Amino acid sequence: MRLVPWHDPLPPGIALHRLDLDLATEDGDAWADLTPDERARASRFARRADRVRFAHTRAAVRRLIAQHLACNPADVPLRADAHGKPFVEAGSDSAAPLFNISHAGDHALIALADPARVRCVGVDIEACARDLMADADALLAMAFTAREQREIRSDADLPRAFFRRWVGKEAVLKAAGVGMAEHLQSVGIHPDAHGALAVDCAVHAWAGIEAMALSAPPGYAAALAWHTKEQPL
Questions:
Q1: How far is CA 51 from CA 4, 76, 103, 206, 228, in A?
Q2: pTM for the complete prediction?
Q3: 47, 93, 156, 227 — which has fewest CB within 10 A?
C-alpha cells in the first residue's frame, strides 16, 4: 500500500490522497487499524482483491483522520449514513475533517475537507472499461440527460466522454449525500477544455456544488466535487 499526497491545485480547504494498492498482497498492518466489525466485514469478501481494497482504503482513511484527532486509527469514530456514505460521528473532536473515498482497480482516492470552509465533498475514480460501451445506447439513456447524451455522441472518443461525465456525476451525488440510482438524471456534467466540470442540478439544494476533473492513472478517470461555505445554500 502506498499513500501519495496530491500535488495538483485543489479548491481551498480540500486535501486529496491517492492510494496505490497491491491487490496480490494482504498486508496485516492495514487490518491492525480496523475495528473488529470492519475486520469481519473485510473477511466476508470472497475475492482477495475486494478484501484488500476495503481493508487498505479504510485503514488509510483512519490513519489520516487520526492525525487530526490525535488518536489511534482504530479509535476514529466512523459511521455510515443511510446511503452508506461514511462520516466521523457527531460529537467527536471539531478538528475532524469531512471526507469521502472511492476505489477502483489498483487505486483509491481519499478526499479530506476542512468543515470550517467546506460544506460537503465527494470524489470518484473509475477504471475505464471500454467493454461497457458495447451497450452504449442503454447506458446513455439510463444515466445521462438529453444534453449529456448529445455531447457524448458528438465526441470522437465516446468512452472517454462517457467516463469523464460519469465520474463527475458520481462525485457530485456523493457530495450531495444521496443514492446514485435514483438521481442519475438529476445532475448534468459538462466538461470544458481545461478540466473544469460545469454542473447542472435539477435539485435546488445542490445548486452550489462545483466539480473538477482530476489527473488519474492511465486507464482511469476521476473527479472531485465540493460545496464551499462561501456559497449560499
A1: 21, 20, 12, 34, 34
A2: 0.92
A3: 156
Chain mean pLDDT for the chain: 89
pLDDT, tens digit, for every residue of 100-121? 999 999 999 999 999 999 999 9
Give the phi and the psi of residue 62 in degrees, each rounded to 5.
-60, -40
Adjacent-strand bridge partners of 87: 79
d(CA 106, CA 199): 28
Cα–Cα distance measured from residue 57 to residue 26, given in angstroms and rounded to the nearest whole number: 12
The SS3 of residue 173 is: helix
- What's the grid cell of residue 64? 489520516
Q: Crossing angle of helices 146-153/136-143, nearest 10°?
A: 150
153, HSE (Cβ side, Cα atoms, 13 Å)? 13
**Sign of the C-alpha dihedral computed for residues 196, 201, 206 and 208 taken in this order:** positive
| Residue type, position 154, single letter | S
State the Cα–Cα distance between residues 176 and 166, nearest whole angstrom. Answer: 15
**Domain architecture of the chain: domains with CATH:** 2-118 (3.90.470.20), 124-228 (3.90.470.20)
Q: Is the dihedral of CA 177, 179, 180, 182 positive or negative?
A: negative
Q: What is the pLDDT of residues 163-176, one digit of tens each?
A: 999 999 999 999 99
Taking 3-state DSSP, the helix, strand and coil percentages for the chain, each rounded to the nearest 5, stand at 40, 30, 35
Cα separation values, 96 from 23, 88, 188, 222, Å = 30, 7, 31, 25
